Amino acid sequence: MAFAQDLDKKDPLKEYRERFHYPQINGKDVIYFTGNSLGLQPKIAKSYVDEIMKDWADLAVEGHFFAEKPWWDYHERLAKPLAKVVGARPAEVSVMNTLSVNLHFLMVSFYRPNQKRFKIICEEKAFPSDQYMLQSQVRFHGFAPAEAIIEVKKREGEHFWRTEDVISKINEVGDELALVLIGGVNYYNGQVFDMAPITKSGKDVGAFVGWDLAHAVGNVKLKLHDWDVDFAAWCSYKYMNSGPGNASGIFVNEKYLNQKDIPRFEGWWGTKKESRFLMKPEFEPIDTADAWQVSNAPVLSLAPYLASLQLFEEVGMESLIAKQKVLTSYLEFILQEIDKEVDSTFEVITPRERGCQLSVFLHGEGRALFDYLMKNGVITDWREPNVIRLAPAPFYCSFEDMYNFGQILKQGILSK
Ligand SMILES: Cc1ncc(COP(=O)(O)O)c(C=O)c1O
Question: Is the N end or the C end of the chain the one with fewer CB atoms within 10 Å?
């Protein structure tokens, strides 16, 4: 305990713990491990939402142009801080819709199959929404999912994907490959895919390469521009702490910006601001990723996202990642220590290439242990058959939380 407290004292991010709201269980702040699902609410989020509500009350339609942060270009405020988080140029980033919707929209531009080149490579057991999205896109273009979607498998007896297997699959499919679309961090095992070489290999065989960054954004180092990724999308409610079901971000490589003839589903919020209200019939794409915006921006949901980005601006990804590495390693150490004291065995199935998340097989334990943890103030999640996912987000989780979690885990097992 003293060791954990000492690490907390030395933690340069320790004051950020106070900047979030915590659910209470048994009168105490919970130990929150589900930042990979829904991040905690930053305390400043409410004031950003209240500001919009007040402007709406006071100004009504005039708020579009005369609010303190005018609504018609409100979304533009998010691009610069977000670009830093994902390693992009601000022009390459926009915020709109929700994640699965954006992946569909981006596939309009980046999945352009023909009879020869129509195959898609993804990881086996991709997040279900991605599977449905890919299958429906393939069918929409008149191909059969079983033929067009190639899943990269893990090796027998292994819990992770090997980069060389992804790359050799890309080379094998070669000139039939239209698109590589993989989750940058896998939702189940927490693995960070080696995005730079995979992107390069996909592009070397002439395919487009996109990434679903739901579990990567705000969690791991991203350099989308330098890696020459074609497109990416992410949700904002996990490590980005923007609120339930909130808006998604997109990345479109700058080489596709400012193109009139790129296939794209268009709407009035993607046309140039200067001429938008002339209500002309021709679409003139904005010269940033905003050209992919279809509808006017959902300002009320962008407000908490902007608030959260302010915290990312203050802290920077470098220091979040630096803390995350130590915090997650400390959690792993705690698990190893408790493992020695109980009969059950914990198998961390997350490989070394990881962000916050540790996915742990609880051999010898069942759902009852998960229920015990929840009742005793540990919010985590359970995936069949008996895996718990623990994602200590560095913004608001402490080393003492990890220690206390270990004690509760031990009690839960010993009290069976
Ligand atoms: C990897 C991944 N892809 C896609 C989604 C779907 O997100 P949305 O419901 O915002 O479209 C999620 C949601 O958790 C996810 O984890």
Answer: N
